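Bench log, entry 3. Co-assembly request; chain sequences pasted below exactly as received.
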Amino acid sequence: MPKFTLNGKEVQFTEGQTIIQAAANAGVDIPHFCWHPSLSVSGNCRVCMVEVERIPKLVIACSTIAAEGMVVNTRSEKTLAARNAVMEFLLINHPLDCPICDEAGECKLQDYAYKYSAGESRFTEEKNNKKKRVALGPAVMFDGERCISCSRCIRFCDEIAGKNQLTLVKRGDRVTITTFPGKELDNPYSLNVTDICPVGALTNRDFRFNSRVWDMSSTKTICSGCSRGCNTDVWVRSNEILRITPRSNPDVNNFWMCDEGRLKTFRNVNAEDRVSGPQVRREGKLQKVTWDEAYSAAGELKSYTKEDIAFIGSPEATVEDNYLLVKFAKSVFGIKHLSMLDHSVTGSGDEILIREDKSPNAVGAKMAGIASENDELDFAGILNGIKNGKIRALYILEDSKLSEYPQLIELLSKLDFLVVHAVNYSPLTKYANIVFPAASYTEKNGVWVNFQGRAQRIRPAITTHETDRSIDGMSMSRLDKFGTKFDSWGNVNKVEARPSWKIIAGLMTIFGHKQKFSMAEEVFREMSDIIPAFKGENYDKIGESGAFIAGKPTAI
Amino acid sequence: MSGTVPKKRLKDLSFWQKIYVPEIIKGLSQTLKQMFQPSFTMEYPEVKFDPPASYRGRPVLVQEENGIERCVACGLCSRVCPALAIEVQAGETEREKERYPEKFEINMLRCIFCGLCEEVCPEEAIVMSKDYEIVFTNRADALYGKDKLLTPIAKLQDRINFLRQYKG
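Structure output for the full assembly:
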């Protein structure tokens, strides 16, 4: 491997790497605005200038290819002076908007102003005025004054989203970003520009002014929108999800996620119609009961045999949930009527990230034993069975798409007994004899397997009645750490819900099959002993970026 | 070092001090003199204390003459508050300053009157008032919302002048 000298140290690099990449690999961060590891090099911000021996002028590290024997200094006096000059230049027309700017706290310009700027400006004239609050599209708001014209957003639209929707117009200090006349920034990935914008010029209209970034906690988890399983951070304040941002994973989603996943996958968690507390239908009405009462009421399932009961798993639940459902069905009833709904929407996928399968865990649920080849009836078969009266009892795991499936809903009244795990109230809960409140995907630990066969961890970001941020090791903001129940921000909304595996484990006790699980991890441990696909896997190994457990990685 | 050093009085008492009587007379005459001086005590609450501009009473929000608050809900006061007394929820308006506090709440049970919120405020929007009479009988009443916090700028001119003279 070729070597070059960086700040007096010899470092290795691969042929063709630029100085900024080689330095990043060696752990030296060179400041940059316009350079992004996944976008083409434009080299217009000039803040990455470094000194290279025998080159009379400073060079920009983002577009200079590293060469054998090069001597690079990123901390020389000349470099620091140049950086300061670039910062002073960029700040000439950048408004002092930080108090009202959403980017404050995660702003590159703000950070670099602290790190690399002397903090003094010789510019005493008036800053120029540009258009503020321009809605570039349905999801993105643009502030012309804050823009430093790095062109990251333009390159993102051109190169990643594949839609040439943004461009720079005018020159000099009048340069600004705009859409083409009559067009909008409305590609399905438009909100990624708010993440890569190094300043607060592009902001998320949905999240705008909702919260300061330092008031929220962030939890590393997975998007539930489709079978891609984009790695995400869920941002929470006062136990409410305020935004979701993509988390970098080169094997799955790189740096990106789609707007649909970002904006829609947490609505049902924050919704008013969350099911809270177990409920049993008495005299035609659902009544809140204790967990034990609900379990013994569900004991009525005993009066059904494997011939007239069916189970519906969920590609939205974790592998642990589905595994215990399979275990419950097989060990208690020995049944074969076990299936789930396919969430695929033909033609809804694209070549970038979005997949046709709108569930995050269809592969994992199958691995856990749902809809396997040994099953007697598939999903349509179960529906048929209900129709001709063969199947009289149904047990359904949480699945939001089932309630939008009219073929099933119209048959529910034919059933004698219906048990539903539900996150939100739905047509299913209207017919249910017993409703178990299921924890949503942001309230539990577990594993999902994406379409590539990659097992990825989901983690709890918000608390239920049964979880506690500090005891359960969840991420905490300052407000979580020091709040009390007497503070309006400490006195948060919580639902009384349990992860489905826990509900089923509790239910199995009623049927004389006591389970000793107290954590999702223990369920997974048992699975890794029994199911070949999960062999040798554990939560630590899956970690933050996931692990391939089947098949081979497909290109993204 | 040497061992014990004999204790030495700073000053030995004189003869007159030792007999004590003149000192008593001195003290009593001082008392008698004070009895005919004007009273120093304030008859609170009939008479109210008017604090100087440097006084740190409860923090309030400055309300401009047009009735709009100066606050842009940046949340710096909330961040700097060592007692976590301040809660701010920003909202969007059509005005030129696009951000305003939808909710601004100070928990007066938490407030320690340190004045850091005032010091950090980039808009001179939260200042320490002269109000020291803070009374409530339950926790809910201790949460001062915008209704109690917004104070016309005319009433705060004293403090603002003080800040402009000494702050920063």
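The interface with chain A takes residues 72-76, 78-79, 84, 87, 90-92, 97-99, 105, 107, 109-110, 122-123, 139, 143 of chain B (CB under 8 Å). Helices of chain B lie at 15-19, 21-35, 76-80, 116-120, 146-149, 157-166.
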